[in-house]
Amino acid sequence: MRRFVQVALLVLSGVGLLRTSLFTEAYLRYVKEGMRPLLIASGVLLILLGVAEVWSAWRSAGRRPETEGDGHDHGHGHDHSGVPRVAWLLFLPALSLLFYAPPALGSYTASREAPKAVAVVDEDGFDPLPATSPLPITLTDFTQRVQQDEARSIEGRTVRMTGFVTPAGGGEGWYLTRIMLSCCAADAQSVKVRVYGVEAPKADTWVTVTGTWHAQGTLGTSSAAVALDGRTVGKIERPVNGYTDALPLALGS
């Protein structure tokens, strides 16, 4: 019985991994795109291990001597072949890969961790901003320019940023958020910009926001608020590159 459970878990997990990584984009909710070949290889390996386990069991059964009906007790008086009930719970993660994909990381994760510290830009490291209005900009670039750009190039500029909605813990406004992965969901970090002046859509809704810097603190220094006076908010679909703080490449489902 235990061997059957082992084989079933190996095969179900392998099939689930292959289904998620080969036939859907759901794997992008948990890992970066570059991890796809490793997921496929892992799925194949799990199935091969299951097949090898079946082959080993079949060969063992063929060599096993006949012991039934000889009148001798070949055991210890009780059966050790049963599987603890709790072991059956191991099937739930395997089955979930086949029938249910948990949602992508979102406001729940972002609201429970401090925002990622943005890198310090070297002196004279800021490139001139294009004259486009509204100016497409990432949340990281906006944060760096607000708190580090002594030339105050962001002052008075109407910017456009994309992210998802995270409710603010207290006070006014809400957070426009992006989550970034170095490898997988376990190392997720977020970057946030507080938005004032416009009503927050439902949490986890992906939006594009236009507005100007919320004048609080001294622009170009660490005292400057990483915040926006919003003018417009438009709902969008989640971008394909949703786990990066980059300008959207395309919109996905």
Descriptive notes:
The protein is an alpha/beta fold. It starts with a helix and ends in an 18-residue tail after the last strand. Strand 3 and strand 4 (189-196) form a beta hairpin. It has a 5-stranded mixed β-barrel with strand order 2-3-4-6-5. Helix content is 28%, strand content 17%. It has helices at residues 2-22, 36-63, 91-99, 107-110, 139-148, and strands spanning 135-136, 159-167, 174-180, 189-196, 206-213, 227-235.
Distance between the termini: 42 Å
Task: Show unreliable segments.
Answer: 71-75
Note the overall shape. elongated
Main beta sheet: 5 strands, mixed, barrel
Class derived from helix and strand content: alpha/beta
Keywords:
28% helix; elongated; five-stranded mixed barrel; alpha/beta; 253 residues; single chain
Topology, pairings included?
Blueprint: H1 2-22, H2 36-63, H3 91-99, H4 107-110, E1 135-136, H5 139-148, E2 159-167, E3 174-180, E4 189-196, E5 206-213, E6 227-235
Parallel strand pairs: 1-2, 4-6
Antiparallel strand pairs: 2-3, 2-5, 3-4, 5-6
Helix pairs in contact: 1-2, 1-3
